[in-house]
Design goal:
It is a single chain. The protein is an alpha/beta fold. It has twelve helices and nine strands. The longest helix is centred in the C-terminal third of the chain and has 23 residues. α2 packs across α10, α5 packs antiparallel against α6 and α5 runs antiparallel to α10. The protein has a single domain, classed as 2-enoyl-CoA Hydratase, Chain A, domain 1.
Length: 273
């Protein structure tokens, strides 16, 4: 069965991450189907606005870290820096594709939005979040050259660095809206309705005008380094993956699983083993 659905209502289309049993965690299949759905709607002249949302209890918890890594020494995946860079560029390209889609994208965020999935609202044109939605960084400090740099554009360097340096940190919906990461924070039950209302209002503008408006707005971000930062993120993340500290984090995750590894880290295990 497909893990991404597309629903249309007039000139508004919704891309729905449909892997609720895994809280819409991204694996290779979800990456592929999500990218295909955005490409399809981006080329559809009958669609003016796209909403991206998640099915079930969460928008998305980011990468699927529950899968067993491919066999490697001590349970940890060993890749060359180049292999890792190529892999990460592909994933970043999928998460950030909403920036390049030629029509406005509204991120409809509820429940949890964690890890790499935070790049989708960060790169979307607008975002609506729930008051009880948690926008969170990974609970283990694995990687780290990607989310912090991209968050600086919406929430500023000080808060972005705090979230990047502190594993398991995050923001709730009202703070995310107050800092500019989202346009609105509303009660959880109203998130989808608000996103749909915004999209319907935007869709009243002729599509050719919307596409020009988006290109004009994104041009400002590009000249501020947004695109270059995205491109550089894969290199920084690939570099941090070669560090001894990151190797220990990955090995602990593979050996203990996410829950026990999180407890191990909280007790200072990363500094003593």
């Amino acid at each position: 069965m497909s893990v991404v659905r597309i629903e249309r209502e007039g000139r508004v289309a919704e891309v729905i991450l449909d892997r609720p049993d895994k809280l819409n965690a991204f694996d290779d299949r979800l990456f592929s189907e999500y990218s295909d759905a955005l490409a399809e709607l981006g080329a559809d002249a009958g669609v003016s606005v796209i909403i991206v949302r998640g099915e079930g209890r969460a928008f998305s918890v980011g990468w699927d870290v529950s899968r067993k890594p491919r066999a490697a020494e001590n349970g940890y995946v060993h890749r060359t820096a180049h292999e890792d860079w190529v892999r990460l560029r592909s994933h970043i390209g999928a998460f950030s594709a909403v920036f390049d889609v030629p029509k406005p994208v509204v991120a409809c965020v509820h429940g949890y939005c964690m890890g790499g999935a935070t790049l989708i609202p960060a790169c979307s044109d607008l975002a609506v979040v729930g008051d009880d939605t948690r926008i969170a960084w990974p609970v283990l400090p694995i990687g780290g050259g990607m989310l912090g740099p991209m968050a600086m554009y919406s929430i500023g360097p000080k808060k972005a660095k705090e979230l990047s340096y502190t594993a398991g940190s995050g923001m709730m919906g009202p703070e995310a809206a107050a800092r500019g990461w989202a346009n609105y924070s509303v009660p959880e039950s109203e998130v989808l309705g608000k996103a749909r209302a915004l999209a319907a209002d935007i869709a009243k503008t002729p599509l050719d005008m919307l596409e020009i408006k988006k290109r004009a707005a994104n041009d400002v971000l590009v000249r501020q380094g947004f695109r270059q930062t995205l491109d550089n993120c894969a290199g920084w993340d690939a570099l941090i993956h070669t560090s001894e500290g990151n190797r220990r984090m990955g090995a602990a995750l593979a050996d203990l699983g996410i829950a026990r590894a999180t407890a191990w880290y909280a007790e200072g295990g990363s500094l003593t083993h």
